[in-house]
Amino acid sequence: MKEVCDIVAERVALGEPLGDAAEHAATCARCRRLSALPTELGATHSETDPGIGFAARMTAGAQKRITVRRHRRVALTLAAAVAATTLGVVFLTRKPSDETVATTPALHDDKAATDTHETKHEPAPDQKVDEDVKFLVQMARTDRAAHRSAHWREIEKPLAPYKHLVKGMTP
Amino acid sequence: MAASRADARSRLLSELAGSPARKGYGIAYDLLRNRAEAEEAVQEALARACESIGDLRDPDAAPGWFLRIVTTMCLRTLRRRRLKRALLGWLPGQGEPDAAPKTEQQPEDIAERMHAMPSEPPREELASREELGALFSHLDQLSAQQRTALVLRYGHDHSVGEIADMLGVELATAKTHLVRGLAKLRDLMEEHR
After folding, report:
1. What's the pTM value of the predicted model, to 2 decimals?
2. How would you label A56-67 residue by residue, b for 16+ Cβ within 10 Å and e otherwise?
3. Contact status, residue A57 vs residue B39, Cβ threshold 8 Å
4. Interface touch B25/A48, C-beta < 8 Å
5. How many Cβ atoms are within 10 Å of B136's Cβ, its own excluded?
6. Which chain B residues have a beta carbon less than 8 Å from that of A12?
7. What pLDDT score does B100 carry?
8. Does residue B70 surpass a pLDDT of 50?
9. Cα A58 from Cα B16, distance rounded (Å)
């Protein structure tokens, strides 16, 4: 039964003749109610008079909206340009000390670093340890590691070959 | 180049502000039931049409294109109104979200609906107004697209194809909006009785 009601609803909605569903539509209360709806909905249409000077009102209103939007667009473009210029100026006039934090340093060549280390004059054993520690500290680049935006992976990478030296040791 | 564009824009504005704007106002008023909102929708549609004049390939299609923009503006207003009603409904002391609209515009709406009703014989006038008032409040409960489809179909005699075009949906979707809208309206009226 529901299927026939659906067919009636569809035909009424599209304004098609009911055809074989007409018999059902005459007996089913819901379908009768639905068939009456288009006429009732037609009564909701009202011939409203928009009043004197409607066209002039609409033209003036539309022109005002276009002008306001154009001004807004110009203001937004200007604001974006000013912001971009400010950013550019800040970027170009940064202090050199900040640069060490922001730029990515070239990775140290371990071999070259070791060679350099070995070419120095022979220090005392205690002093040598200190030199090694100094070198490790230099490799770890503690200035970068202390910075908020430091990447742990970048700090660990140059220290990887020295990992076995501290294996099994407790801090 | 800029001057010719400005000329074309002002020509289009003067062309649309006449008969198409009146027709657009009729549709907007039937959908929104508020004079101020209907005028605002038409003004906004005029401004948008003039701004996107470059999108219009066939100048003869301008009135239909304009009515589509008016319908879009009305759909936007209806959705915003529904959202506002839902938000007000969720506030403490404002009742259920799906309750009848309790916005400030309601008294004005009712007055305008009464003013805009077609003249009836005096004996049947009161009953008819009551029924029509119920019908308007049930229409408010439909989705914006269902309501627009029903008003355009039965109030303005647009074909299903035209409705699909104005709503910016496929033909099958427009048919679904019509069928479901009618069925829901019938159910709401049965509940009311």
Report:
1. 0.65
2. ebbbebbbebbe
3. yes
4. yes
5. 15
6. 182
7. 40
8. yes
9. 10
